Amino acid sequence: MKEIILAYQGEMALKGLNRGTFESVLLKTMRRRLKALGEFKVYKAQSTMYAEPMDDGADVDKAFDYISKIFGIATLTRAAVCEKDMDAIRRTAVEYLREQLAQAKTFKVSARRSDKSFPMDSMQISRELGGTILRAFPHLKVDVHHPDVQVSVEIRDYAAYVHGGKQQGAGGLPVSTSGAAMLMLSGGIDSPVAGYLMAKRGLSLSCAHFASPPYTSERAKMKVLTLARELTPYTGNLNVYVVPYTDVQTELRDRAPSDLFTVLMRRSMLRITEQLAQKEGAKAIVTGESLAQVASQTLMALGCTDAAQMLPVLRPCIGMDKTEITEIARKIGTFETSIQPYEDCCTIFTPPHPKTKPELEEILRAEQQVERLAELERIAAENAECVRVNVGE
Ligand code: ATP
Ligand code: MG
């Protein structure tokens, strides 16, 4: 029996946004992600994406898992392909869903007929197939509201497809259809979640990570690259810029008032990220900040940080509690890596009493005292090492 993966679109079809572009991005993404899994034919018909295995080596289990993480796909299912013939449909449904139906107590049939030349309408198909299933599995009952198994038949242009119900996909919009942004990726819990959330809204991402050796270790950097790798099933391949930040940071420590150190550092990180954004053609910066989580995330501190450069700063975690952020981190699989205890440049040299309500004027004055700041920032941006992190490596 031939099995195929069907993926259905969500929001992009509903909103009537630029549908053609969205669909072609989605097809390209699917092709790219499935490349390593054997030969698949990926195509679109009637707003549904098909991934059809073309030889025995094609890994359908893995393909299904990969496709379930591609943004822009609202629901998906594995389905058996059969002839557009009622007897073939009956046989296929009983055989393909045997295990599921044997274990279930209740079921329901739903039929969709987009090929109107098929001689029966969807009501008739459902009734016929329901009867067949009741005869083959006499222990089953029909439950139209909460069935254990939803037996589904779709009569489409090329064939009929039989499956046991759709599963939720990753949702959102296809990556890159909303443009590009720089994700400031630390080793913490929040920033990978922020990256995931913005990729879900259709942004393609590159990452900036600030490292201050010898205060931060090689292992801290490896941890961040692992986090980036864990994001790639959602974001696609990532460029991660590792910024040598020690000189900027020690200069700020030595020359600026210590209670303003954290905000000054955050401003300088954003300016460097802005320079990297130019290289990557990115039009926004994404961070994992959450209001009032730490001293640098008070309203006043965020205001001062925003004023450091021109790009919009997107903070998808801003209104979330740590528990909510953690829940997403677990779901997407970054949590276990994030809690490994390595130092981050943001937590070295932190003053004992950071100002929680800094005024922009005093910040600008303090910055002027650090004469070489702009120069050191430019050098840091220029010397950033670009590490390419690919899906599935
Ligand atoms: P996270 O859990 O993501 O580390 P956090 O709650 O620890 O966040 P901060 O350390 O204040 O908060 O950092 C706030 C945000 O600044 C992070 O979410 C991240 O986007 C960015 N950031 C912090 N440290 C770094 C770093 N070393 N490199 C790049 N970005 C960083
Ligand atoms: Mg952090």
UniProtKB/TrEMBL annotation:
It is found in: Cytoplasm. Pfam families: ThiI, ThiI_fer, THUMP. SUPFAM superfamilies: Adenine nucleotide alpha hydrolases-like (SSF52402), THUMP domain-like (SSF143437). GO terms for cellular component: cytosol. Residues 61-166 form the THUMP domain. Its EC number is 2.8.1.4. ATP binds at M184, L185, H209, F210, R266, G288, Q297. The keyword RNA-binding applies. It catalyses: [ThiS sulfur-carrier protein]-C-terminal Gly-Gly-AMP + S-sulfanyl-L-cysteinyl-[cysteine desulfurase] + AH2 = [ThiS sulfur-carrier protein]-C-terminal-Gly-aminoethanethioate + L-cysteinyl-[cysteine desulfurase] + A + AMP + 2 H(+); [ThiI sulfur-carrier protein]-S-sulfanyl-L-cysteine + a uridine in tRNA + 2 reduced [2Fe-2S]-[ferredoxin] + ATP + H(+) = [ThiI sulfur-carrier protein]-L-cysteine + a 4-thiouridine in tRNA + 2 oxidized [2Fe-2S]-[ferredoxin] + AMP + diphosphate. Gene3D superfamilies: 3.30.2130.30, HUPs. GO terms for biological process: thiamine biosynthetic process; thiamine diphosphate biosynthetic process; thiazole biosynthetic process; tRNA 4-thiouridine biosynthesis. Keywords: ATP-binding, Cytoplasm, Nucleotide-binding, RNA-binding, Thiamine biosynthesis, Transferase, tRNA-binding. The keyword Nucleotide-binding applies. Pathway: Cofactor biosynthesis; thiamine diphosphate biosynthesis. GO terms for molecular function: ATP binding; CCA tRNA nucleotidyltransferase activity; tRNA binding; tRNA-uracil-4 sulfurtransferase activity. Catalyzes the ATP-dependent transfer of a sulfur to tRNA to produce 4-thiouridine in position 8 of tRNAs, which functions as a near-UV photosensor. Also catalyzes the transfer of sulfur to the sulfur carrier protein ThiS, forming ThiS-thiocarboxylate. This is a step in the synthesis of thiazole, in the thiamine biosynthesis pathway. The sulfur is donated as persulfide by IscS. Belongs to the ThiI family. HAMAP family: ThiI. This is Probable tRNA sulfurtransferase. It comes from Candidatus Ruthenibacterium merdavium.
